[in-house]
């Protein structure tokens, strides 16, 4: 399949496919396209975002079955082969012979790369080593000075995961402030986000940049859909006094207040309709646990708001409407809202 055809066919399943590199498209065409089409026949949509407990169990099952099939004696050898140079050739041969990519992603409607990264995170013994000691922090700074941001190399030297060393260095590389955000810090964050959004919009849709430039207030924040793709390490650098996770959390809180202020989402008839939509959509998911709910997708049911806002609204709804809610399971709470609260809301509407 040629590159343009692959990109075009993948677009049905991955809306942001235009932003994916050619090399990644080629890999996805081989590893994912047929799987996605098969899931479509079964009426199952391709998923992104947080992995559910059910998906984690399926990954664990897939890994264990592959180990049993091949005789490889540990998940660490399978997923972190470079740590075992003496077994490297044998493991690669077994992975090829027994179709590792296909087996590891069985039953999970997500891109193979995300499943693979999730498996590595789940089975990496270096992920669970607790807090960094003072000596480890000093080593991390020294290794970063020697090797730059080659986190794979640094993770091997420190026996910590790639993600762990990258995030820890992000926290310690400058004087980080853990107190309340000052007005100056918040302004820096707003400017940094607006700057990267402007660049992103210019790439995606040049005509939209003019409206962004002319905005003296905050209508441009309605482009909240971009928040998950923002380059937080770059924004961290621009803010200077906070690490990337703090910047992301602060930005999400800004979105929550700004997107709800003045939009009248939860007042009058709009508020009733939003609650009705939320209850109906939650009931339709048939989720047994809150972790199984795609909150990003659910936010579309009630308006252009972040997932945190939808989760907060659901919390207030169950606390105010469901008696003894702490003793009920997630599905029992949803059933109660659907059977008891929904008719009342629809009558009021």
Give a verbal description of the structure.
This protein has 349 residues and is mainly alpha-helical. It has four domains: 3-123, no CATH class; 134-173, Orthogonal Bundle (Arc Repressor Mutant, subunit A), CATH 1.10.10; 183-260, no CATH class; 268-348, no CATH class. The chain contains 19 helices and no strands. Helix 12 (183-204) runs antiparallel to helix 14 (232-239) and helix 14 packs across helix 15. The N and C termini lie far apart (53 Å). Residues 208-227 have low confidence and may be disordered.
In short:
The chain is mostly helical.
Keywords:
single chain; 349 residues; mainly alpha; Arc Repressor Mutant, subunit A; 4 domains; 19 helices; 63% helix; 0% strand; globular
CA radius of gyration is 23 Å
Number of domains: 4
Order of helices and strands: HHHHHHHHHHHHHHHHHHH
Tell me which oligomeric state these chains represent: single chain
The main pleated sheet reads as:
none
User: Averaging pLDDT over every residue, what do you get?
Assistant: 80
Helix share, percent:
55-70%
How is this fold's topology laid out?
Layout: H1 3-11, H2 22-31, H3 33-41, H4 53-70, H5 75-79, H6 88-97, H7 100-104, H8 112-123, H9 134-147, H10 151-158, H11 162-172, H12 183-204, H13 209-214, H14 232-239, H15 244-260, H16 268-285, H17 295-299, H18 307-321, H19 330-348
């Amino acid at each position: 399949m040629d590159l343009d055809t692959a990109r075009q066919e993948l677009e049905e399943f991955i809306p942001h496919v235009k932003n994916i590199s050619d090399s990644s498209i080629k890999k996805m065409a081989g590893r994912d396209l047929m799987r996605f089409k098969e899931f479509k026949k079964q009426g199952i949509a391709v998923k992104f975002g947080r992995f559910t407990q059910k998906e984690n169990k399926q990954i664990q099952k897939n890994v264990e079955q592959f180990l049993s099939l091949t005789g490889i004696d540990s998940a660490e050898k399978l997923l972190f082969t470079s740590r075992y140079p003496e077994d490297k050739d044998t493991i690669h041969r077994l992975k090829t012979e027994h179709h590792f990519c296909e087996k590891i992603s069985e039953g999970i409607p997500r891109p193979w790369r995300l499943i693979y990264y999730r498996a590595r995170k789940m089975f990496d013994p270096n992920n669970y080593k607790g807090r960094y000691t003072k000596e480890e922090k000093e080593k991390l700074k020294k290794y970063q000075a020697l090797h730059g941001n080659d986190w794979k190399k640094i993770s091997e030297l420190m026996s910590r995961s790639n993600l762990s060393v990258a995030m820890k260095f992000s926290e310690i590389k400058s004087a980080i402030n853990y107190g309340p955000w000052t007005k100056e810090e918040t302004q820096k964050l707003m400017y940094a986000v607006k700057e990267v959004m402007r660049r992103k919009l210019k790439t995606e849709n040049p005509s939209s940049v003019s409206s962004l430039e002319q905005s003296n207030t905050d209508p441009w924040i309605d482009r909240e859909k971009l928040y998950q793709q923002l380059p937080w390490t770059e924004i961290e650098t621009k803010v200077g006094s906070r690490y990337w996770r703090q910047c992301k959390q602060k930005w999400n809180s800004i979105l929550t207040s700004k997107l709800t202020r003045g939009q009248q989402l939860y007042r009058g008839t709009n508020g009733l309709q939003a609650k009705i939509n939320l209850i109906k959509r939650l009931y339709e998911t048939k989720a047994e646990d809150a972790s199984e709910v795609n909150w990003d997708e659910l936010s579309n049911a009630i308006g252009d708001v972040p997932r945190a806002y939808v989760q907060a609204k659901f919390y207030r709804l169950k606390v105010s409407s469901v008696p003894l809610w702490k003793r009920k399971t997630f599905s029992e709470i949803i059933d109660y809202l659907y059977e008891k609260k929904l008719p009342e809301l629809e009558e009021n509407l």
